[in-house]
Structures are given as C-alpha cells and as structure tokens.
Amino acid sequence: MGPVPPGVHARRPSVVSNPMRTQAARVTSEPLASSEDVARAASVALAHGRIGIDTEFMSEGRYRALLCLVQIAVDDDHSDGSGPHISLIDPLEGGVDATPIAQLLADPAIEVVLHAGRQDVAILRRAWATEITNIFDTQLAAGFAGASAQTGYGNLLGTMLGRRVGKTASYTRWDTRPLTAEQLSYAAEDVAHLLELADEVQRRLSETGRLGWAREECRRLESATDERDPYTAWERLPRVGQLDPRARAVARELAAWRERTASDEDRPVGSVLGDPALVELAKRHPSNVGALEQIRGIHPSGIRRRGTAMLAAIAAGLQAEPIPRDEPRGRSEPEDAPLIVLAEALLRARSLEAGLAYELIASRNELELIVAATRRGQSEPDVRTLEGWRSELVGADLRDLLAGRKAISVGTGRRLVLGDA
C-alpha cells in the first residue's frame, strides 16, 4: 500500500451504493505492524476521513485492563476490489510508535468506527493519552435500525451483510508473547468488515432519517473512562445503605484506601480487601489488630501486611464528618407502579413504530424518576429520556400522558393509540 500524500483529504461518501459487495481483509505483509506501517495507515485514514479500530486487552488479575493489541482498518483503493487494509499494533513489544493513530483518534474530522466500543474508548484514552472524537459505534447505531441494542459483532454481520466470523481465540491470553497465528487471524477478522458494516448501518439510517440521532448517541462514548474516583468507590458497596452516618464515613475512607492500594499494586480491589469484610469493618470500626482478627474474610497474612493501614483508614473515617443517609430523592413508591407500566407501554409502542431498540429510549430507573417527579410536582429529572432526540420522539407524549392530558387505548390492529383524555 503506497502512502497518500500528506494533507490530502479525499473524503469518502457518507454511505455506499452497494453495501453487499464482496470484500476480503488485507493484512500487512508483516504479522505485526512496524512504525512505518502505522504511519502509512494513518496517512490513508486521513485521506479517507475514517478509521476502524478494535482492541484486545486483559483485565483479569489487574486493577486496570492491560492494552495488549490494537487492530486498525483503513479504506484501500486497490482496483481488485479487495477489502480494507488491516494493521495489528502490539503495544507490549516492538517499540512501535502509535502516535500517528492516537492523533487521528482525537481529530474531529476523522470518523472513528468501533463496535461496542465503550471499553475500547476508555482503555485507549488512558493507554495512549488521547481523546477520541467523532465516534460511530456500529452496535449502538444499529439499535436505531431495529437491531437489539446489545447485538454482537458476529450477529450483526450475519443479519446485515450475510457474513460469518469465527471466535476461536476470544478467550486466549492476549498478554503472552509471541502471539499465535490463530490470535493474529482472529484479531484481524474483528475489524475486517467493520468499515463495511458501518457503511451498511449508515445507509439504513439515512433512509429512515435516523442517522443524526445515532451520531448524537455515539457522542456519549467520547467521555468513556475506566478511571475511578477513590472517594466515591464506597457508594458501590453492597448493603452500604444499611450503614449509619458514622459507618458510612469509615466505609468511604476504607474504600478509598483500598482503591489506592489496588492501583499502586495493579491488582483487583477484591484481592486487597473483599467487599463484605470492608462493610463489616465500617460497621464495627475496630481500633486494634486483635479486633481486626475477629472480622471474617480478612486473611491473617492480610492483617500482617495491611493491618496498620486498615486501622489508619478506620481512624480517619471516625474523625471525618459523618455522611448522612441520602433522602430517597425522586424514588418511586408502590402506588407509582401502574403509571410506570403505562409509561413504559407508550415508549415501547413508540420504539416499535420508529424501528428503534427500546433500551435506547429509557430504563426502568429513568421512568421511576420521571413518574416520581410528576407525582410530587417537582421539576423534571435530569434523565436522557427527556433530552435530545429522545425528547423529540417521546417527550411531549410522555409529558401529556403523565399530566392526564392524553390517554392510551387499543386501536386498529390492536395497537396502542394515544389520544385526548
């Protein structure tokens, strides 16, 4: 593949006229890309205005997932009708300079195509210290074309392009070297048809006028992160709602200490201190090693190694301002259940009419917040269902229904109809 002259922006069409064309992946001549391969691929992506990307990573036994391989696909202009050019970048070995690709990901003029890419975005942002903009996620976007919001890559290729992919190496150790031929083939296949799939999804969305909605939703992925705030980690603990205000402050300090320790040692938080033991420590707040030994779930070796640090975190929590229990703000009450079900029925009917995955429109929790706010006469909650394209699709009808201005009935063909109350 020859390099494209710098500064050339031969932008591709937004959709293709023949999305079912036959394509075969073209992998670089070397199994893994060199810095020169990466630079050439970046130049081509710049010329065409887009890049397909996927990652392989290992999260087991670590605090943060380890980026093990990055697969990129760029459009190729070979006259033989072959598919995209694929490059495999090894971030663990080889000293490959991935800067040209990292810079492209942050360029709002370059469309970044992924599938179910939230975790890929989070890992790449951290590992490559880059922002990722102008994302087009084929899984997310396909939900606007009638597919399930969680449709896997292989299933989507089958239903939209009639293609099949293998998954023989999906659970292999991506952090071991050398990578096998099977692993490299699997990794390349994961992006071999990604750009073609994006073309087909965009074609369908353009026909229905939903492409703008899909792009709006994909922008939410730009802020994906796998970084955690140590001082909010306690809020995710099991049974934390049962703790009194002083115990909640102790739980916050213990959880923050656990997060920092796990991060420093790059190990799962549970291997530092398990959730049940942490909650029990917060409830009992022991003040010496002997009392620590009475708590189930803390191994003696853990007490020897970290007992002093645990006691220090407990003491800090006891000295901190107690954390009052949250008021049940916006939560539904039992008598709200029928209205929540009615609202869900309306939204499901609208999703079917629009050919959208229902999961894209609302969650049960969001409906509970909306109904509870209506019952209390409060301002609308800050939920996605009442914002952007969702508000355009269902916002006015949902407000009218909950205000009693509209009513639902069964109409022709036994379909739900919204009419005046």
What would your notes on this structure say?
By secondary structure, this protein is of the alpha/beta class. It has three domains: 198 residues, 2-Layer Sandwich (Nucleotidyltransferase, domain 5); 90 residues, HRDC domain (DNA polymerase, domain 1, Orthogonal Bundle); 87 residues, Orthogonal Bundle (DNA polymerase, domain 1), CATH 1.10.150.80. It contains 16 helices and eight strands. It has a six-stranded mixed β-sheet with strand order 1-4-3-2-5-6, with helices on both faces. β7 and β8 form a beta hairpin. The longest helix has 21 residues. The N terminus is likely disordered.
Quick overview of this protein structure:
By secondary structure, the chain is an alpha/beta fold.
Domains, number: 3
Count of beta strands: 8
Order of helices and strands: EHEEEHEHEHHHHHHHHHHHHHEE
CATH C-level of the largest domain: Alpha Beta
Instruction: Give the CATH architecture of the largest domain.
Output: 2-Layer Sandwich
Radius of gyration: 26 Å
- Which descriptor suits the 3D outline? flat
Structural class designation: alpha/beta
Beta content comes to: 5-15%
Q: What is CATH's topology name of the largest domain?
A: Nucleotidyltransferase, domain 5
Number of helices: 16
The CATH homologous superfamily of the largest domain is named Ribonuclease H-like superfamily/Ribonuclease H
- Biggest sheet: strands side by side, in what order? 1-4-3-2-5-6
Helix content: 40-55%
